[in-house]
Amino acid sequence: MIDYIGQIAWSDISSDGKHILATNPQNSDILLMSIDGEIIGNFNKSGDQPDAIGGSPLSRPQFVKENEWAILGKNGVLAFDFEGQFTKAAKPDFPVTLSMTISNANILHFMDEEKALVYYLGRDGKNTFYVNPESSQLEIIDLNTGDFTAALPIPKDSKFKNPDKIHSVMTATPVMEISDGKLYLAFKNEPKLWIYDLNNLDEPLEQIDINFDQFIEKEGVNPKEVEQDNVAFSSKDFTYAAINKILAHDDQVLLQYTKGLTDAEFEEITESTKDQMEIFSRIFEKNKNHYCILSTTGKVHPIIMPDKAGAVEFWDKEGNLWVGYNQEEELDCEVLYKCVLKEEK
Q: Cα-Cα-Cα-Cα dihedral of 151, 156, 161, 162, to 10°?
């Protein structure tokens, strides 16, 4: 339980399990707290001062090691100690494309105490709304040298690799997790999971085709039929299925995902109201998150969430799941539950 007035988005738990990072999306404050809920640091690294990330955060903050954390912005990845003092940085040698990067996304993951993987648009210089099938999808940042290095081409069996049917960046955002020397990678609107050795990001070790009972995909478009520089989306774009989070522990994989809405379900919403805000609200209410454990064969084992449980935030080194509180019921504090995953008999 955390005594804090304001909105909290949980970000990371330290490797020793003693500290938690969170953010306030409304003002970009970064909260460092003990595992007992005591807030021991409140920082804001937005802006253009020398030790700031430039503008608003592009990622949620992550622990570099047990006494250091980092965050991604348009100025690169900047690291700080527990007093909020700048320690080191890695900055790109190309202009980042900010147009469709989702603020506070889970797109910064540390491989070790010096290197991290980030999703950072702009290296190919095309600045389009559509994914370039030939471009790298991630950057390896090195806090020791300060360098950015392109990494990870789109896997050959991904639909986003097809140059004849291109997709918007909204559907192709990478979803990542790093655990035990492996990278677990998916793309938002594709029911596949790739597993890589961190020492070789050119070819995956394994591909898993996920057997969701429903996963509504958006079709790609002919590149000759669209204006690739034109950023355009509608309420319909938010009705598709999405893999939103990957967590891994001891080779087990947990997915947070939405199934998507059928055309009939979307039509029912749009026929009942013309108010755009109400349409979006009803889409998000109906296209809700689900959780599952994924087997190596692609079978989905649904997780039954407790009453009043919110999102699954972390899977710690001891195998505990940390679950937020259902924000539909207002409290005068923030709550995070420590849970154990049990097999139903």
A: 160
How many alpha carbons lie under 13 Å from residue 58 in its C-beta half-sphere? 24
Q: Copy the structure tokens of residue 244.
A: 């939103």
90 neighbors 140 (Cβ within 8 angstroms): no
276/171 Cα distance (integer angstroms) = 21
Q: 191-200 long-range contacts, Cβ below 8 Å, gap at least 24?
A: 191/215, 191/217, 191/241, 191/243, 192/155, 192/157, 192/158, 193/246, 193/253, 193/255, 193/294, 194/155, 196/152, 198/111
- Structure-block tokens of residue 260: 């998507």
Q: What is the mean pLDDT of residues 72-87?
A: 93
DSSP-assigned letter for residue 328: T
Q: Which residues contact 311 (CB under 8 A, 6 or more apart)?
A: 10, 245, 256, 289, 323, 324
User: How many helices and strands (H and E) does the chain possess?
Assistant: 3, 23
Whole-angstrom distance, CA of residue 297 vs CA of residue 165? 28
**Termini Cα distance of the chain:** 31
Per-residue model confidence as pLDDT tens digits over 103-149: 546 889 999 999 999 998 878 776 677 888 988 889 999 999 999 99
Q: What is the largest CA-CA distance in the chain?
A: 56
Measured CA to CA, the distance from residue 293 to residue 196 in angstroms comes to 19
Phi first, then psi: what are they for 257, rounded to 5°?
-150, 160
Residues pairing with 336 in the sheet: 324
Q: Phi and psi (nearest 5°) for 321?
A: -95, 135
Let me know: does 241 contact 216? Beta carbons within 8 Å: yes
* DSSP per position, 249-284: ETTEEEEEEE----HHHHHHHHHH---HHHHHHHHH
Neighbours of 316 (CB within 10 A): 17
Quick: pLDDT tens for 17-56: 999 999 998 888 999 999 998 999 999 998 877 788 887 8
